[in-house]
Amino acid sequence: MEIEVVDYLGSARRYFYSTNQYQYYLSEGYFYICNKGDIVSAPVEKDHHLIWLDPEQATECLFHEHQSWAIQKVMARK
Asked: What gap in Å lies between CA 9 and CA 32, rounded to an integer?
């Protein structure tokens, strides 16, 4: 899908412990506000699907706290 970057929202980091790999990782995210554009190709991986969630649903589904932070920051702008 094409996107148009409208604004840079910010970056955030979170250390977390992987219970699958038994070690700590740094998850770093860079967040942008974008407009969605045209779909330019079919999905490459058959088990991956793009779905749109309302902000509350998305916050509940995300694993990393800094991803939820980004959604909350966008919602505070409205």
From this structure: 5
Residue whose pair of structure tokens reads 């967040």 in the numeric block: 31
- What burial class does residue 76 get, using C-beta atoms within 10 Å of its C-beta: 0-12 exposed, 13-18 middle, 19+ buried? exposed
Closest of 53, 50, 48, 46 to residue 68, by C-alpha: 53
pLDDT in tens, 21-76: 999 999 999 999 999 999 998 888 988 888 889 999 999 898 888 999 999 999 99
Rounded Cα–Cα distance for residues 23 and 45 (Å)? 28
As a whole number of angstroms, the distance between CA 36 and CA 26 comes to 29
